[in-house]
Records
---
Amino acid sequence: MELPLKPRRALVIGGSVGGLFAAHLLRAAGWDVEVYERAARDLGDRGTGIGTRDELFALMGRIGLAADASIGIGVDGRLGLDRHGATIHDLPVRAVTSAWSRIWRPLRQALPDDCYRTGKTLTRIEQDSEHVSAAFDDGSRAHGDLLVAADGLHSTARAQLLPEVTPGYAGYVAWRGSVETLSPEHAVTMFQRMVFGFPDGELMLSIPMPAPRGGTGRACHFVWFRPVPEGALASLCTDAGGRCHGVSIPPPLIRPELIAALKHDAETLLAPQLAELVHATPQIILQPIFDLKSPRIAFGRVALIGDAAFVARPHVATGVMKAAIDAECLADALAADGDVADALQRYDAQRQPYGAALVARGRHIGAYFAGTHRNQAPSTETLMREYGSAGLVHDRPIVARGA
Ligand SMILES: Cc1cc2nc3c(=O)[nH]c(=O)nc-3n(C[C@H](O)[C@H](O)[C@H](O)COP(=O)(O)OP(=O)(O)OC[C@H]3O[C@@H](n4cnc5c(N)ncnc54)[C@H](O)[C@@H]3O)c2cc1C
């Protein structure tokens, strides 16, 4: 009698959207999967608006999750406003937006609890031609046939495998926030349309999104990109007690005088509709913008996916989407080729050029307002049309997924 084959085992590092898509797709292909997430708490209460594309809903459908209208909301078009609130562009670019939590939560709920370990921080990977193992900061180890590194921008796995690759600062920061209640005068526009403002050398935009906590309500997320020299980041990320938090800072610790200055600038530089968002948001968030490009994303039995592999500037609005399709391409490559290392090479050949093109695309859009291409800057209307056109360059996919 033939013994049934033991399922191959995948270690997935990082339990955010990339790790969860990978876990579901590998389980569906017969792998025994365990996800190791550093955070001890639930991730679902975090996050703001995200852009979506049909492939995201199709992929959720592929893993058996209802991709119904509650995941996203329709956005009716794009409005460009001058400083006084008058319309300068009115573009019929329709879109569907969602909230990060509305993607992450159903993915997490559909994964059995015994496959998802929290409070587990990867410290080191070891591999030979037959196996791979992960060491964690609590002294434990896990062993498998494949390791999927979905551990984000500051990936421990990538730092070990590509120590020379580090995130590059874009030269500007994003001040962000979300609002669920607005004055009746502005609410209809701001909850239905994407709205852009163009202070000199800066970009402000707002995006309607589903209310993060569920239900049918809407919220409005804004992002205001403003140049900041790299040397000034430490000061921005220093709290009122004088402690510098590196290149980010927990939102409640942002110094009150910085928030007061932002609100003052909103009054003087932004259309009233956009300035109201800055005033009404209960919590301003500061996010210096970085991007990252990996020359390789497969290393023997280890694959980098999502933000661990590439991070494009947010103007391509595709972090979740790219992580999901990375996971899908990886699972499909493994299904097509029984040899893990060969399958990972195939995955690398497919997704590395896509990630590199996406980073270039984010830089191209960012150059519009960051001053680097000032003398040849396209019009504000072109910027509005191109903003968020993540997967397309000249209206064609950068790389066909099945290529
Ligand atoms: C909580 C959260 C909220 C977000 N909200 C938004 C949003 O609103 N809009 C948007 O466009 N993008 C958001 N992002 C970023 C966006 O989701 C990413 O582009 C997208 O999530 C890429 O997914 P990822 O799984 O590759 O990486 P990430 O989402 O960055 O997830 C990486 C995961 O790995 C874990 N991790 C890191 N290091 C280790 C380690 N050593 N060991 C184990 N685990 C580790 C992290 O805790 C994290 O959960 C958010 C990311 C996070 C983590």
---
Amino acid sequence: MVIGSRTPLPNFKKGSAGNWLSGSFIECNAINDENSEVRSYQFKDPYGGGFKYKAGQHISILLPLDDGEEYRTFTIASSPTRAHNITLTVKTNRPNGATAWMRENIIVGTKLIAVGPTGPFNIADHPCHKLLLICAGSGITPMMSILRWLWDRKEDIEITFIHYAKNPDQFLFNDELKQIAKDYSSLTVHQISTDRPDGKTNNLPNFEQITSLIDMTDHDVFCCGPNGFMQKIEKIVKKAGANHYYQESFGTQIKSNINSNIITNAENLTINYKGRIIEAKKGENLLAVLKKHKFIIPTGCQSGMCGTCHLKILRGSVDMNHQGGLSKAQEDEGIILACSSTITTDLTLI
Ligand SMILES: Cc1cc2nc3c(=O)[nH]c(=O)nc-3n(C[C@H](O)[C@H](O)[C@H](O)COP(=O)(O)OP(=O)(O)OC[C@H]3O[C@@H](n4cnc5c(N)ncnc54)[C@H](O)[C@@H]3O)c2cc1C
Ligand code: FES
């Protein structure tokens, strides 16, 4: 079978499959604690439609936080084959911030505005025959979506799934992974605990460890986890001969590139967006300017990787330096990433 071919969606009323609209409400219809630190929230379309997305993509939800409304971005951990609901699996152990708000406030019946789904990190756009899904901590969420999708479709490809966690209590989706591996002969699962029982040395990924688990020849690699982890894995798999390497950044450890460098004597420019005309200086970061003028722009990584902050230019141009968050086709259509764009002319945006 070829990844990316279309599977009919199950059990939909005629015409309702995939017709949830970005920018409208999603409604929580189930909550499940995966462990003491991680909670899954399942959402449905309150109007009975279904969600259309590619396994690995993410969605941004608008949260009414104390300091005002803000978007937060989460991978959809469920599979597009089960399109009636989406599940977001969220690390909820922070004492405050957006995920703490979610832990304390989201209950079954809560409705929130969401935008997306979007994101270049997805399996449907990158067909392959041998796949390594490698992740650490909550970076498992896009890998679960990809694996659940491949499994639901019984895709005949070789899959190795490696999950790193500090200790065995933190291995997420343990039972489900075991169940899928039992029935899916082309899947091999490795769960690696980085803290050794003696507490002395860390069992962190290295070349020998990974190449003892998998012969990387002809493999495409999908990786998600903390930045240092992903940098290490990229080096290892490239050295070991992998075909392609793709990574998803949750952005939490990335230094944001949206700080605006205002050159006080720079040329004055205007931005026309959502019926308002605002002023900007040539050379300012577009996202910083929009935020300064109180536009609520969905953002995720804030460094040009996840594609969440995309806008379309109707008039004008920007200097853009993104990290793979847009495809060439999107760029050709005039789509830009606000977080990675510097204003160079007057702009009209949608
Ligand atoms: C593509 C993508 C997928 C993700 N998937 C998951 C997932 O599946 N599970 C999961 O647990 N987490 C995921 N995250 C991380 C998640 O979005 C949160 O950033 C993270 O959980 C931080 O927790 P918090 O929002 O409670 O922190 P907060 O304390 O609210 O924020 C931490 C700091 O980061 C800043 N910040 C964080 N995110 C944003 C944002 N979007 N816009 C503006 N400022 C921001 C805040 O201003 C603050 O300074 C994903 C992130 C991205 C980009
Ligand atoms: S916020 Fe991720 S690309 Fe801009």
